[in-house]
Structures are given as structure tokens and as C-alpha cells.
Design goal:
- This protein has eight helices and no strands.
- By secondary structure, it is mostly helical.
- The protein has two domains: 73 residues, no CATH class; 89 residues, no CATH class.
- Helix 4 crosses helix 6 and helix 7 packs antiparallel against helix 8.
- It is elongated and about 75 Å long.
- The relative contact order is 0.07.
């Protein structure tokens, strides 16, 4: 790739668009003309296996990357609400902690209290409190929350994930004491 004619470290990018170096404005047109007059292949010697490229500018390229690929919008429109059938109906308790959950949090050791979980995901905290006394069921719920079985899920905030992992260790210690005693 040719270098800028000044002593700077910029490189020229000649693809039918302005060159990248701010110092080349005065000879941009001359270089473009030179490239068009002296093509790399002579007419009649075209390589049939060569790829064809379309000249574009950076703004058009950015816009193309921001838009979803063709067909993706159609595919998502074909199955609106595909997860709705798999989810349980929303309950009023999904947005606030219930009394049982508050009691459960207070009963946990201070270091193991899931404060961030309760703030960010009260529905999950309520579900954990409901099944906490049934250790295998609580362990299954924690596994479902910590392990991505569907792939591509956004996941929980790192702080919330750490709280869930701590609860899982607390629960596994409880299970081991129950199995050994």
C-alpha cells in the first residue's frame, strides 16, 4: 500500500473514495485518475475466477451493517411471540418481593443474601425462596439460571451471577450435610 507523500505515517487507501491521510487532499484526484488510466489488468485478460467488487463509501457500509440481513425481519415476523407459549402468565409478584422472600433473605447468612438479585430480578428471588426448602428443586432452579442450555442468551449481570453461585455453594453444602448425616 503506498505511503503518504509527506513524512507522516498515514497510508493511502485508493478505492475510488477519499484517501485516509489528511495530507493527501491536494493529490487525491491525480492518484484516482492514475489508477483508472493504468488498470492492473489489460482488457481481454480478465480472470474469470476473480471476485467482483462494488465501490461504496464508508457511510453506506456502516448503514448496511446496522440493518439486519434480508429475510431476518421476515423470519421473525412469521413467528411473533414464539416464546409466549412457553412462558407462564405474568403475575403481580413478578415485579415485587413477597413476604416469604423477605423472610428467606433475612434467614440466610449475611454474606449469602442475594441483594442484587432481589433488586434486579424479584421474580427469580421469589421463585428461589419458594423452593429453597426443597433442596433438589432449588438446585435445579439454580442450575437452570446459571447454565445456558438454549445458547445465545444474554445472561445475568456478573454480580447477580456471583450471588447465585454463592447460593448454589450454600445449598450444596446443605445437601452434603443432609446426605452424610
Amino acid at each position: 500500500m503506498p505511503r503518504c507523500r509527506t513524512a507522516c505515517s498515514h497510508r493511502e487507501i485508493a478505492i475510488g473514495m477519499p484517501l485516509a491521510c489528511p495530507h493527501v487532499g491536494q493529490y487525491n484526484g491525480a492518484l484516482k485518475e492514475k489508477l483508472m488510466i493504468e488498470p492492473s489488468t489489460k482488457p481481454g485478460e480478465l480472470d474469470l475466477n476473480a471476485l467482483e467488487f462494488e465501490l461504496t463509501d464508508f457511510n453506506e457500509a456502516r448503514l448496511a451493517l446496522e440493518e439486519p440481513p434480508e429475510g431476518l425481519q421476515i423470519a421473525s415476523a412469521l413467528r411473533p411471540g414464539r416464546w409466549d407459549s412457553k412462558r407462564r402468565p405474568k403475575l403481580p409478584t413478578d415485579r415485587a418481593l413477597v413476604g416469604r422472600t423477605l423472610d428467606w433473605i433475612v434467614a440466610l447468612p449475611e454474606a449469602a443474601r442475594p441483594k442484587r438479585l432481589a433488586d434486579a430480578y424479584p421474580r427469580i428471588a421469589n421463585a428461589l425462596a419458594e423452593c429453597w426448602d426443597d433442596a433438589p428443586r432449588a438446585n435445579a432452579l439454580l442450575d437452570d439460571l446459571l447454565i445456558d442450555r438454549r445458547g445465545g442468551r444474554r445472561g445475568l449481570q456478573p454480580e447477580v451471577k456471583e450471588e447465585l453461585q454463592l447460593l448454589q455453594r450454600l445449598l450444596s453444602g446443605r445437601l452434603q450435610r443432609g446426605a452424610g448425616g
